[in-house]
Each structure stands twice: as structure tokens, then as C-alpha cells.
Amino acid sequence: MSDNAYVRLPGLVDVHVHLRTPGGEHKEDVRSGTAAALAGGFTTVLAMPNTLPPLVTLTDLRSACRRADAEALCDVHYFAGASAEHTDELQSLGRKAVGLKIYMDQTYGPLRVGGLLTLLRCFQRWPREKPIAVHAEGESLAAAIGLAAAFDRPLHLCHVSRATEIALIAQAKQRGLPVTCEVTPHHLFLTKGDLGRLGPLGDMRPTLGSQADVAALWAHLDSTVDCIATDHAPHTLAEKQGAEPPPGVPGLETALPLMLTAVDDGRLTLERLVALMATNPRRIFGLQEQPETWIEVEVGPTWELSNDGLRTRCGWTPFAGFAVKGRVHRVQLRGQIVFQKGDIGPLGSIHRSSKGPL
Ligand code: NCD
Ligand code: ZN
Ligand code: ZN
Ligand code: ZN
Fold first, then answer.
1. Closest CA to 160 of 261, 253, 276, 264
2. pLDDT tens for each residue of 18-56
3. For position 319, which CATH number holds?
4. Atom 6 of ligand 1, residue of closest alpha carbon
5. What is d(CA 169, CA 172) in angstroms, rounded to the nearest whole number?
6. From CA 304, how far away is CA 321, in angstroms rounded?
7. Any atom of ligand 1 within 6 Å of the Cβ of 135
8. Which of 35, 42, 102, 269 is the least buried, fewest Cβ under 10 Å from its Cβ?
9. Which domain holds residue 55?
10. Could you give the CA distance from residue 72 to residue 31 in angstroms, rounded to a whole number?
């Protein structure tokens, strides 16, 4: 018999993942990425457009969506990418995409947008009812908030990582500006002090912050922060350990165990976790509820995150060796069990030793 407790939660929503399809299938594809999503408790993911080709035209966006429809194991919605060359397509892209992604700073991929003219066109033309999401760090983040204020339209700030940035967002919200934001587990659980240990496996954009940055993000988790998003950004180990390591780390399979551990440590409530990882993401991006959909998590026994057994094609995690206290046990999507922990035996036996509401 075990003392494990099983808790049922809504299917989680990750508003920031890179499925690497098209063009980066050696890192991840729709099948492996959505398998990782389910293993991590996510039944909906929003996929980023910095693919090869990038999703900046209706033709390429449509073909990515068609592929996801055929191959995905959970719900996938795509962002369109902003580019100076295709601002004429913003309206039609806006009917198909879940939001517009603007890369205001340099990161992985070719999508950095420079120049006020393109930004103005994006804010003028993108449908008001769909969010604009930005990769914007430091002063770029301030500029993005200024645009949201000027055009009075919803803006979502991706992977906020610095004390100064979260303070500015808190201020903007206090003024009633229509901004929302996400924070990643790696910016909550790692600092630049981990870089010596992690080397290139600790490199991502935004880079890891200081202890004070991390403390500020945690302090704002109950108020300013709207979502936990993984920014699942798989690259192969060979790429990460090569001469020019691309920035980015995977996160789909480690986010919930890490956040459940924080709940166990009393750093946030389970209720708040559900708001940050399900309810708020759904509201911000206007996603419909998935009927008969839930996840069952096991809280209690400590186990160690590891590179072994990951579903993501990249096959590694910057959190290998972390002791955590929660894991995904089962996932049901629209009435069907789509994931159950592999080492428990056949369906008929899996509930024998549990005393949860199963
Ligand atoms: C992301 C990627 O690899 O696509 N990398 C990263 O370091 N976060 C791009 C991004 O989200 O900025
Ligand atoms: Zn980014
Ligand atoms: Zn990203
Ligand atoms: Zn069970």
C-alpha cells in the first residue's frame, strides 16, 4: 500500500512552446512535442512561429495547422509571426492564428522585427480580440507596453525574467493597461549561478537572472504574474554542446513537477497553480474548455527529474537531478485516457494501491 495522494486538476495550458515543425524535426516534431505535453499534464499548447520557414504567411501557417491537426496528441494552436515583409497578411493571419508573436529582441530564429513602422502596422492591423505576444526584454518591454497603452489593445509579455521588468508590469497593471505576462519555470528555479554547472544547457533567452530577479518573480506570483509557460525550446545535445549553441531549453515535462514541489513547500497554493497553468491561459487567449478533460497528479513521494524516459526528442532537461514531489499519473482528453504513467502495469491494476478519488 502507498500513502500517495492523487489530485484531479483541469488539463493544463502551455501558452509558449516550440514544436519545431516545420523545419526543425530533428529537435522535435508535433508528435514528440505533444507527447511531452501530455506527459507533463498539458492538454493544450500554443505553438510558436519561429520555424523554418517561419509562420509569417497564411500559406505556411495553414500548412503548419494542417500538420498539427493530423499528428498532434493534444490540442495545438499556432501563433503567426510578425515580419516587415508580410504586414499585408496580418488581417488574414489574424483569422487563423491564436495570436501574433512579435520578436522585438534577438533570439533563436530569423524573426526579429526592427523599426517602429512594422510595429505600428502590427498594432493597427492585428484583430483586437486576439492578443499580441512579444519577446521583449528590458527597454523593448517598456516600448511594447507603451504601444499597448497607445492602441489600447491586449498585450501578452513572454518569459518575463527580471525584477525591473516585473515591477514595470505591476505598475502598468495598476494603471489599468491591458497587459498580461508569463514566467517560465527555469526563471523561477535557476539563476545565473547555475551556469557553471549547466554550461550551454543553461543558456536561453532571456538569460538566467540573479537571485534578486528570481525572488522578485516569486514575490509577484500571487499578483502580477498571469501564467506559468514553459517556453519549451528543444535543441539537440549535440547542438547545445557544439561550437555555436542555440539558446533554449525544454520544459514541458518538468514544469508541473517543479510547480507542485513549490506547492508542497508552501510557496504557492494549488488553487493559484491552477489559475497560472490552466484558467488564466485559457481566458487570456480565448480558448474554449475541453469537455471531459482532466489530469490526475500524484503528490507525495519524492523522485528525481532525469534525462531518462523523456518524450521530448531532445532527450535532456536542465533540471536533471532535481528532487521533486509531484508527477502526472493520468491524463484524460475529451473522455479518453491519453496518458498514464508507464511503469504501473496494465489498466486494470493501476488503481489498486491508490486511495485517491479515482
Ligand atoms: C527559443 C527557441 O529556441 O526557439 N529560445 C529561447 O532561448 N527561449 C526562442 C525564444 O523563445 O526566444
Ligand atoms: Zn522568446
Ligand atoms: Zn520561446
Ligand atoms: Zn490512477
1. 276
2. 999 999 999 999 999 999 999 999 999 999 999 999 999
3. 3.20.20.140
4. 248
5. 5
6. 6
7. yes
8. 269
9. 5-349
10. 6
Three-state DSSP at 311 gives: coil
Tell how far CA 99 is from the center of its chain: 14
pLDDT for the residue 342: 60
In a domain, 298, yes or no: yes
Nearest-angstrom CA–CA distance, 226 and 239: 32
Query: In the prediction, which pLDDT does 86 show?
Result: 97
Residues with CB under 5 A from ligand 3 (ion): 231
Q: Say what the pLDDT of residue 356 is.
A: 33
Give the type of residue at 26: H
The beta strands (E) that lie in 119-255 are given as 132-135, 155-157, 179-183, 227-228
| Amino acid, single-letter form, for residue 8 | R
Residue of 205, 230, 232, 314 to test ligand 1 pocket, by largest number of atoms within 8 Å of CB: 205
Task: Judge contact between 257 and 301, C-beta under 8 A.
Answer: no
Give 349's pLDDT tier (boundaries 50, 70, 90). Answer: very low
Place of cell 504501473: 344
| Grid cell locating 77 | 494552436
Residue 357 included in any domain: no
What pLDDT was estimated at residue 266? 96
Q: Is residue 123 part of a domain?
A: yes
Q: Is 18 in the pocket of ligand 1 (CB under 6 A)?
A: yes
CA distances (Å), 52 to each of 21, 25, 164, 202, 282, in order? 8, 10, 33, 24, 28
| pTM score of the predicted model | 0.94
pLDDT tens, position by position, 58-115: 999 999 999 999 999 999 999 999 999 999 999 999 999 999 999 999 999 999 998 9
Domain count across the chain:
1
